[in-house]
Specification:
The structure is a single chain. By secondary structure, the chain is mainly alpha-helical. It has one domain. The chain contains three helices and no strands. The longest helix has 15 residues. The chain starts with 6 loop residues before the first helix and ends with a helix. This is Formin-like protein. It comes from Trifolium medium.
Length: 51
């Protein structure tokens, strides 16, 4: 039961920070988050062709 205590308080701060549903910081989730941002920041292949 002691193990259940620490993860609970860690969830609230992460939830609003990422503005996502109450989910734990998973490796796949974190890897997808930066990838999505990179895609938006980086120019799409179509833009390159247009140039």
């Amino acid at each position: 039961m002691s193990s259940s205590s620490p993860p609970q308080p860690l969830s609230p701060p992460f939830f609003p920070t990422y503005q996502s549903p109450p989910q734990p910081p998973s490796p796949p989730f974190l890897a997808t988050f930066p990838a999505n941002i990179s895609s938006l920041l980086l120019p799409t292949p179509h833009t390159k062709t247009h140039n």
